[in-house]
Amino acid sequence: MIPLSVIDLREAEPFVAEVLRSGRISRGPMVERFERDFAAVTGTRHAVAVQSGFAALVATLGALDLRPGDEVLTSPLTSVATLDAIIEAGARAGFADIARDDFALDPDEAGCRITRRTRVLLPAHLFGQPADLGKHGALAAEAGVRLVEDAGQATGSPAGSSGLACFSATDCGVVTTDDAELAGRVRDEARHATLSELSAAVCLGRLMRHTTRTDARQRNAERLTDGLRGTPGLDVPKRLPGREHVWQRYTVLIGPHAMLSRDELAEALTGRGIANAVCHPRLVFDHDRYAGLVPSVSPRDFRVASQVTEEALALPVHAELTDTELDTIIEVVRDELGA
């Protein structure tokens, strides 16, 4: 089976050993080193490491002093951690449709959904490509709201350039900002979710090779795109001008005129030894657990996002793929779709 993803933790071994020899488990020099290095990678002045991407979002929203009834406007196509964090912060979730070319919150749609209650604009960078931060930044400034990036799937890209972003790494979450006072408030909000020395060691080991892995995923994505372009009924993902895609997922769209439906193709690929995933089978609010916790909205209100839940399929693009495996993925997908 060609796996969808591969995580190699051997690169973290020397850092883990250093922590074990130190005898210190709670926050210490390894966490501080990871924060410094992460800030350098993302080009920001301050990084606050916490236990998860969810904890990063909760701490960030908490640091913005949101009040009951304040709205956080986000994408309906995102992780449940995003919506859970909004609810945990005591805010109200609002949604706007996405753009089909980057799977991210559409700035034009968001502009139509901002109300007097909106306090935060929270675009999610899905599958590794940043949202249109130029347009989102202009929209936030015009509306007088705070722009926060949900960059959990975009570590290594220019995500974080807006000045306040929440990342998710292998075993941690990170908040980045250039504002020292805000970083202090985030750290205070996250005091019960601080990162351990062992987790920092694992994350630091992964961070040391992030450029190498990102370069490999970008090469793999280019090869997949070249091989799959023109396959009947299949749309390859786009790398948009001015945005660096780090390919956390290689997500194709299987349209209604394809020989197989998305789910049929997924089953066929699994049967032929190629792992794949339907990352978002439904919109984030479309779960029974959120009944009474989010505004009354319907998937029909978000046409593009709803289409993506029916058509999107993630294929392997990880850094450990061989040329033979990439060729196999291309050959099998094209064969199943009648190319």
Which secondary structure elements does this structure contain, and how are they paired or packed?
Blueprint: H1 13-22, H2 29-42, E1 46-50, H3 53-63, E2 71-74, H4 80-88, E3 92-95, H5 107-113, E4 118-122, H6 133-143, E5 146-147, E6 149-150, E7 164-168, E8 173-177, H7 180-189, H8 197-208, H9 210-228, E9 234-235, E10 250-254, H10 262-271, H11 303-311, E11 312-315, H12 323-336
Helix pairs in contact: 1-8, 2-8, 3-4, 3-7, 9-12
Polypeptide structure, described:
The chain has 339 residues and is an alpha/beta fold. Helices cover 40% and strands 13% of the residues. The chain has a 4-stranded mixed beta sheet with strand order 1-8-7-6, with helices on both faces. The chain starts with 12 loop residues before the first helix and ends with a helix. The mean pLDDT is 94. One of its GO terms (biological process) is polysaccharide biosynthetic process. Keywords: Aminotransferase, Pyridoxal phosphate, Transferase.
List descriptors:
alpha/beta; Aspartate Aminotransferase, domain 2; Aspartate Aminotransferase, domain 1; four-stranded parallel sheet; 12 helices; 13% strand; DegT/StrS_aminotransferase; PyrdxlP-dep_Trfase_small; pyridoxal phosphate binding; pyridoxal phosphate
